[in-house]
Amino acid sequence: MRAGFRARLVVPLIAKERVVGALVIRRNFRKGAIHLLQTFAAQSVLAIQNARLFREIEEKGRQLQQASEHKSQFVASMSAAAKPTPPTATAPFPRDSARSRTAEIVRQMAATRQRRIGFQQLHSPLRPETVAAA
């Protein structure tokens, strides 16, 4: 009133039951103008909330990017640490161990065959000792 205005309208900007600002207009007002200003205030609150959410999303995006970079570095370091070591000179190659196993099986088969031949000769009805004694 001191500045020559006949009326002053203050519309609070409220978001989630918290005042985030105020819209102040000084002049003569009718009910239609007041309703229009309240609608404008509600839209202003939405714009302020959207700006805050946008900043939060940008910050979360930066955090996710940083976490992804750390994960990639970790995976790279773990895969480098998990590389197999080359075989040592004392460990036989798989091909050599297969050969030695095959040779052992052949020796066992030959020994079994020799025992079978000896058993057959021992129990043969045509053994020289049996024929000579008859």
Structure description:
The longest helix has 51 residues, at 31-81. This protein has two domains: 8-81, no CATH class; 93-134. The chain has three helices and two strands. A hairpin with a 2-residue loop joins strand 1 and strand 2. The chain is an alpha+beta fold and 134 residues long. The protein has a two-stranded antiparallel sheet. Helices cover 64% and strands 13% of the residues.
Provide tags for this entry.
single chain, 134 residues, alpha+beta, two-stranded antiparallel ribbon, 3 helices, 2 strands, rod-shaped
What is the fold's blueprint, element by element?
Elements: E1 8-15, E2 18-26, H1 31-81, H2 94-122, H3 128-133
Antiparallel strand pairs: 1-2
